[in-house]
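Re: that backbone. C-alpha cells:
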C-alpha cells in the first residue's frame, strides 16, 4: 500500500466516524437551552433533559446544553419539598425540530407534562403555559406558595 493510500485511509476513517455521530439516530446538537415552569405553587430547580442541565428562570437563564435527538427523560425538583418530578408524557425530539435553530425551551406544566419549542430568538412562554398561569392566579395561588 502506498503512503498516499494509507494517509487517505487513516484520515477518512476518523472523519467518517465523526460525521456519523452527527447524522445518526443519536445526533447531538449544542444549543442555548432554557425552561419555563408554569406551576405557581413551587419553583422548579435542577431541571434536566437526559441528565443534562437546562437553564431556568422562565427563559431568563440560558445555558448551552447538548441536546440529543430521540426519546427524552425530563426531571426537575420542587423547591419547597425537594421532590423529584418526572415528565408524565413521552417527549421525543426530532432532527427537524433542531436543525438550524439556536434555542430550545423546555415547558413544564402543572400536570407534570412537558413540551419543547425551538427558535432562533430567545424563547417565549407558550399560550398553553400562559393559560395555566392565568388559571392559577384566578384561584389565588401565588408564586412559590404551596
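Recovered sequence:
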Amino acid at each position: 500500500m502506498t503512503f498516499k493510500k494509507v494517509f487517505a485511509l487513516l484520515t477518512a476513517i476518523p472523519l467518517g466516524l465523526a460525521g456519523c455521530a452527527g447524522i445518526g439516530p443519536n445526533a447531538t446538537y449544542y444549543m442555548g437551552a432554557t425552561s419555563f415552569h408554569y406551576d405557581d405553587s413551587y419553583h422548579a430547580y435542577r431541571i434536566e433533559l437526559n441528565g443534562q442541565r437546562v437553564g431556568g428562570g422562565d427563559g431568563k437563564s440560558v445555558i448551552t446544553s447538548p441536546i440529543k435527538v430521540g426519546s427524552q427523560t425530563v426531571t426537575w425538583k420542587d423547591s419547597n419539598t425537594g421532590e423529584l418530578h418526572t415528565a408524565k408524557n413521552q417527549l421525543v425530539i426530532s432532527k427537524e425540530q433542531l436543525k438550524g435553530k439556536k434555542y430550545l425551551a423546555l415547558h413544564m406544566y402543572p400536570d407534570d407534562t412537558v413540551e419543547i419549542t425551538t427558535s432562533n430568538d430567545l424563547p417565549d412562554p407558550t399560550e398553553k403555559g400562559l393559560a395555566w398561569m392565568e388559571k392559577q392566579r384566578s384561584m389565588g395561588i401565588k408564586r412559590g406558595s404551596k
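Residues 5-9, 14-21 have pLDDT under 50 and may be disordered. Residues 23 and 87 are 27 Å apart (CA to CA).
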